[in-house]
C-alpha cells in the first residue's frame, strides 16, 4: 500500500474520529479503535498489514507512556504512592487469583492457569491515560493513584510473565537476580536521567534550541525503552519512568505542549488505530464451543478488577463516584494483556479459542471503559491538582 495513502487514511481517522465519537458520547480513543477494526486487515481490508505501520504503532505506545510520565510530577507521586500501591496490589492479586481459579474450573493445565492470572491482572495504561488527560485528571490525586496502580499492575504482570516464559522455555533463570536487576534499572533511570536532563535542558537558551531539547528527550526515551526490552521488561514501563525522571526539568508548559503535539498529533493515534486493525472480528464471533468460557472470562475479568479497585479506593477516602470511576479505569486490558496472549499463543501454550477469548476481553473492556470512566470522573468544576507546575485552586 502506498505510504502516503496509508498516512492519509490514518490522519483522516485521527482527525474525524474525535468529532464523531464525541457526537455519540464516546471518547476519541474508542472511535479510533473502532475505525481500525472496520478499515484494517481483519475488517474491510482498506489498510493492509505493514511493517512500517506496526513499528510506528509500537513507538506510539512508548511515546504515550513517556508523555504520561512527563505529566506526573514527582512531588504528586510521592504524596500518593501509598494509595497507588494499595490500589495496585488489590487490582493485581484479586484478578490474578480469579483468572487462575477460572482456568482451574474449566480444567486447563497449570501453564494456562498462570497465564490467565497474569493477563487478567494487567491494566491498559495506554487506554486510561488519554481519557484521564481529556478530563484534566492526570495530575490529580485520582489520576496519579489510578496511573500509579496501573503501572504497578503492569510492572508486576510483565515480571511474572517474563518469569513464566523463561520457565516454559527451559532457560536457566534466577528470579531473585532478575528482580534485583529491575530494581537497579529503575533506580538508575530516576537518578541518572535527571542529571543529564538538568545539564541539557537548563542551559541558557542561546546555547541550545527547542529542537535540540526535543531531540534530547526523544533520545532518552529510546535508550530507556531499548534497555527495557533487553532486560525482558515491556518498554512502556521504562518509557513511563523516563518521563517521570525528566518531568521536573521541564519548566514551561509550552515546551510540554510541543511534545504533546508530536505524540498525540501523530504517533499515539497510530497505536490505537493499529490496535483496532489487529482485532480479528471473525475470530471473536467464531468462539463457538468456547463461548461459555469466553463469557465467563469477560465477566470474571470485569468483576475482579471492579471489586479490587472499588473497595480499596473507598477505604482510602475517595468518594463513591470517584471509587467507581477508578475501578472502571482499572478494568481495561489492551497492550500488555494482548502482548502476553500473543506470546503464549506463539509458543503454542494456548489454543485458538482461548486466544480468541482474550481478544474478545480486550475489545470489550477497551470499548466500555472510556465512556464509563468519563461518566464517573468528569466534572464541571476545576479539579485540584497540578498542570504544568501551577496549582489549581
Characteristic key phrases:
16 helices; Na+/H+ antiporter like fold; 393 residues; mainly alpha; disordered C terminus
What features would you describe in this structure?
The protein has helices spanning 3-23, 28-39, 51-70, 74-105, 110-121, 125-134, 141-169, 175-201, 210-230, 235-247, 253-277, 281-285, 291-315, 320-329, 335-346, 352-377; strands at 385-387, 390-392. The chain has one domain: Na+/H+ antiporter like fold (Up-down Bundle). The longest helix is centred in the N-terminal third of the chain and has 32 residues, at 74-105. It is built from 16 helices and two strands. By secondary structure, it is mainly alpha-helical.
Topology, please?
Blueprint: H1 3-23, H2 28-39, H3 51-70, H4 74-105, H5 110-121, H6 125-134, H7 141-169, H8 175-201, H9 210-230, H10 235-247, H11 253-277, H12 281-285, H13 291-315, H14 320-329, H15 335-346, H16 352-377, E1 385-387, E2 390-392
Antiparallel strand pairs: 1-2
Helix pairs in contact: 1-2, 1-11, 2-11, 2-16, 3-10, 3-11, 4-5, 4-7, 4-13, 5-7, 5-15, 6-7, 6-16, 7-15, 8-9, 8-10, 9-10, 13-14, 13-16, 14-16, 15-16
CATH topology term = Na+/H+ antiporter like fold
The span between the termini is 51 Å
Oligomeric grouping of the chains: single chain
Poorly predicted tracts of residues: 380-393
How many domains make up the 3D coordinates?
1
Helix content: over 70%
Shape: globular
Radius of gyration: 20 Å
Number of helices: 16
Give the helices and strands as they follow along the chain.
Answer: HHHHHHHHHHHHHHHHEE
CATH-level-2 architecture: Up-down Bundle
Largest sheet: 2 strands, antiparallel
Question: Going across the major beta sheet, what is the strand order?
Answer: 1-2
Would you tell me the structural class of the helices and strands?
Answer: mainly alpha
Strand content: under 5%
Extended strand count: 2
Q: Please state the average pLDDT score.
A: 80
The CATH class name reads Mainly Alpha
Amino acid at each position: 500500500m502506498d505510504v502516503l495513502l496509508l498516512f492519509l487514511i490514518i490522519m483522516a481517522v485521527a482527525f474525524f474520529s474525535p468529532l464523531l465519537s464525541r457526537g455519540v458520547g464516546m471518547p476519541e480513543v474508542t472511535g479510533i479503535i473502532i475505525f481500525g477494526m472496520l478499515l484494517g486487515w481483519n475488517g474491510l481490508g482498506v489498510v493492509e498489514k505493514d511493517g512500517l505501520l506496526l513499528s510506528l504503532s509500537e513507538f506510539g505506545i512508548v511515546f504515550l507512556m513517556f508523555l504520561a510520565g512527563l505529566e506526573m510530577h514527582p512531588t504528586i507521586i510521592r504524596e500518593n504512592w501509598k494509595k497507588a500501591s494499595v490500589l495496585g496490589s488489590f487490582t493485581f492479586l484479586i484478578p490474578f487469583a480469579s483468572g487462575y481459579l477460572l482456568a482451574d474450573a474449566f480444567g486447563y493445565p497449570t501453564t494456562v492457569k498462570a497465564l490467565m492470572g497474569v493477563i487478567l491482572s494487567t491494566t491498559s495504561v495506554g487506554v486510561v491515560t488519554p481519557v484521564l488527560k481529556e478530563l484534566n485528571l492526570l495530575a490529580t490525586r485520582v489520576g496519579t493513584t489510578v496511573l500509579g496502580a496501573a503501572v504497578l499492575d503492569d510492572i508486576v504482570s510483565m515480571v511474572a510473565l517474563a518469569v513464566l516464559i523463561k520457565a516454559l522455555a527451559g532457560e536457566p533463570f534466577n528470579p531473585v537476580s532478575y528482580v534485583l536487576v529491575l530494581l537497579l534499572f529503575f533506580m538508575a533511570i530516576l537518578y541518572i536521567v535527571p542529571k543529564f536532563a538538568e545539564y541539557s535542558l537548563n542551559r541558557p537558551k542561546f546555547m541550545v534550541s527547542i529542537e535540540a531539547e526535543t531531540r534530547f528527550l526523544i533520545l532518552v526515551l529510546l535508550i530507556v525503552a531499548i534497555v527495557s526490552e533487553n532486560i525482558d521488561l515491556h518498554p512502556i514501563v521504562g518509557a513511563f519512568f523516563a518521563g517521570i525522571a525528566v518531568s521536573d526539568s521541564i519548566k514551561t508548559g509550552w515546551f510540554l505542549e510541543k511534545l504533546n503535539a508530536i505524540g498525540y498529533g501523530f504517533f499515539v493515534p497510530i497505536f490505537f488505530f493499529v490496535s483496532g486493525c489487529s482485532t480479528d472480528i471473525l475470530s471473536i464471533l467464531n468462539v463457538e464451543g468456547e463461548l461459555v468460557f469466553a463469557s465467563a472470562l469477560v465477566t470474571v475479568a470485569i468483576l475482579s478488577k471492579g471489586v479490587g479497585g472499588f473497595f480499596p479506593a473507598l477505604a482510602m477516602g475517595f468518594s463513591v463516584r470517584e471509587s467507581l470511576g477508578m475501578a472502571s479505569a482499572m478494568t481495561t486490558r489492551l497492550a500488555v494483556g494482548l502482548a502476553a496472549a500473543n506470546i503464549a499463543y506463539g509458543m503454542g501454550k494456548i489454543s485458538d479459542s482461548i486466544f480468541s477469548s482474550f481478544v474478545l476481553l480486550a475489545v470489550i473492556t477497551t470499548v466500555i471503559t472510556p465512556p464509563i470512566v468519563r461518566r464517573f470522573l468528569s466534572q464541571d468544576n476545576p479539579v485540584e491538582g497540578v498542570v504544568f507546575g501551577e496549582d489549581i485552586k
